[in-house]
Structures are given as structure tokens and as C-alpha cells.
Automatic annotation (TrEMBL):
Entries under NCBIfam families matching the protein: PRK07340.1 (NF005603)
Classification via Pfam families: OCD_Mu_crystall
InterPro entries cross-referenced by the UniProt entry: NAD(P)-bd_dom_sf, ODC_Mu_crystall, ODC_N
Name of this protein: Delta(1)-pyrroline-2-carboxylate reductase family protein
Record organism: Thauera sedimentorum
Length: 304
């Protein structure tokens, strides 16, 4: 059987954000889900190959992704690859999804699910730091799933920031570009950091009702948030990680010297073991093949 890889647009059409967030929640309650540790294989020139398998009782996937930091600023994306989906009962390859599209949408949907469960205030304004692919996907996810109507955008690239602001306006949102992300923290209860993560981009204390989704740093060597900020949020509110894998991957928290193993994960939140706290919330997301499995499950149903 020949399975033609879906285009980015075809993959997008099968993964609407509210439905994907619901599927992520359902996956966390599914006892048949198995997710081995992902393989990160270093490549010459600072690139990496990620191999990420997962399965439930009916579907098995492997996500194959290259991460090439040297592509930043060029026409080539930094993340490329595919998600291959198999039917377990027959061994048949069912779908080949566009990998970067799955990564962008499931990452934003994970942040959306966390915000739905944990954000003290969900109406915004939303501050997005980083106007790349993840900035765009989080903008769309929070607008579709939380009803956010106002967004503030900060980026090292003025052109990228203006382009994302124009996209937001095209969705009917109020959008502005801001030069000082630290100062914007005082005005925005929702925050997403989605940067190349070579150094801390935020280190000021956030609002008491802040929800921060930090998604740019997904290896121990990467960092977006300053150590003082991480400790301040832990003291006044709560820090939650996406999965237990963050114990080895959450660069922001590890470099801050925090005991990541002691932090609650999103599964604890979904299962009712981590109620919405008082004070600010930091949701640290590093990625997990289980999120790709949830996207595959939803895409298979949408295709079938």
C-alpha cells in the first residue's frame, strides 16, 4: 500500500486546536499508551536527528525529525521531518503526516490544554516572545481555544514581529508589537516564550495572575527564562512540566538548579491531582512523542 505524505495544509486541516487539546487530555487518561524515551542523535554541524516512537492499543507512530539550528534566518526550516502512522492490527501504514506541522500544532495544543486547566486568567492580553513558527501556532491556539482577543508581540526581528501582528489582525485580533518584553509582563496575564533559546529572554517577576508557557528550550543546554524568575514563580505559585521527560530536558529549570523531578506534570493536572493554584504558573514544555501520538489519533479519525 502506498501512502502519499500529507502536505502541511492537509495535516493542518486534520488537527484543529480545540479538538487536539481534547485528544491530548484523552491520551493522558489512556492506560494503553506507551512512549519510549526519544533518541536524540547528534549530527555534524550542531544538528540533531530525533527518533520518537509511541503507540496505544490501535495505532503506532514514529516521528523522525531533524533539528538544524544553522537554518535559522534562511528559507530552510530549522525543523523538518515526518510522522509515520501504522495500524497495529494489520501493520498497514495509514498516514504520513507533515512533521513540522504536527510539532507546531501539538506543542501549541499542549500549552492550550495547560492554560485551560491552570491559567488564573484566560482572557489575555497574550504576550508572545518570539515570532516564528511556535509564536504563530500559539497565537492561533490561544485565540481558538481561550478566546484571546488581544496579543502583544516581541521579537528580535522587527519584520517577523510585524508579520505575526498582521496575521493576528487578519484573525480579527487586536495586535501590537512591543520592544520591551520585560515591561509587557506587567500588562499580560498570558505569556508564551517561543524563541531560539540561546539565552534568557525574560527574568522579571510576572503578574500574580500570570500563566507562562515556555516552549523554546527543549534540551538541557537551552534556556529562555532566568533562574530568578523560575524560583520566584515556584515560591509564589506553581511550576508544572509537560512530562517526566522534562527531568532531563528542561534547560530553564535545570540551569536554575530546581528539582525538576519533584514538580507536577500535565498528567497530574488532567487526572485531578494538581488543582489550579493561587499565584503565577509556569508551564515548562519540552516535547514528547505521546503528543505526536495524540495528533496521529485525531488525524486518522479525520481521514477515515
Amino acid at each position: 500500500m502506498t501512502t502519499i505524505p500529507l502536505t502541511a495544509a492537509e495535516t493542518t486541516s486534520r488537527l484543529p486546536y480545540p479538538a487536539l487539546a481534547e485528544e491530548l487530555s484523552a491520551l493522558l487518561a489512556d492506560p494503553q499508551v506507551v512512549v519510549p524515551a526519544r533518541l536524540e542523535h547528534p549530527l555534524p554541524g550542531g544538528a540533531s536527528l530525533f527518533v520518537m516512537p509511541a503507540n496505544d492499543g490501535a495505532v503506532a507512530i514514529t516521528k523522525l525529525i531533524t533539528f538544524t539550528p544553522a537554518n535559522a534566518g534562511s528559507r530552510r526550516p530549522t525543523i523538518q521531518g515526518d510522522v509515520v502512522v501504522f495500524d497495529i492490527a494489520t501493520g498497514t501504514r495509514q498516514l504520513v503526516l507533515d512533521g513540522p506541522t504536527v510539532t507546531a500544532r501539538r506543542t501549541a495544543a499542549v500549552s492550550l490544554l495547560a492554560a485551560q486547566r491552570l491559567a488564573p486568567r484566560r482572557d489575555g492580553p497574550l504576550l508572545i516572545v518570539g515570532a516564528g513558527v511556535q509564536g504563530l501556532s500559539h497565537l492561533e491556539a490561544f485565540a481558538a481555544g481561550l478566546g484571546v482577543r488581544e496579543v502583544w508581540i516581541n521579537s528580535r526581528s522587527a519584520a517577523s514581529a510585524e508579520a505575526l501582528a498582521d496575521h493576528a489582525r487578519g484573525l480579527g485580533l487586536d495586535a501590537r508589537v512591543v520592544d520591551d518584553a520585560q515591561a509587557a509582563l506587567a500588562h499580560c496575564p498570558l505569556v508564551v516564550t517561543a524563541t531560539p533559546a540561546s539565552a534568557a529572554v525574560l527574568d522579571a517577576p510576572p503578574r500574580e495572575d500570570a500563566f507562562i508557557a515556555a516552549v523554546g528550550a527543549f534540551t538541557p543546554r537551552m534556556v529562555e527564562l532566568g533562574a530568578a524568575m523560575c524560583h520566584d514563580i515556584a515560591r509564589r505559585g506553581r511550576v508544572v512540566v509537560d512530562t517526566r521527560d522534562a527531568e532531563h530536558e528542561a534547560g530553564d529549570l535545570l540551569q536554575a538548579g530546581m528539582d525538576v523531578a519533584a514538580l507536577p506534570a500535565l498528567a497530574d493536572v488532567v487526572r485531578g491531582n494538581c488543582p489550579r493554584p493561587a499565584g503565577p504558573v509556569l508551564f515548562k514544555s519540552c516535547g514528547w512523542a505521546g503528543w505526536d501520538l495524540a495528533a496521529a489519533r485525531l488525524a486518522v479519525r479525520a481521514t477515515g
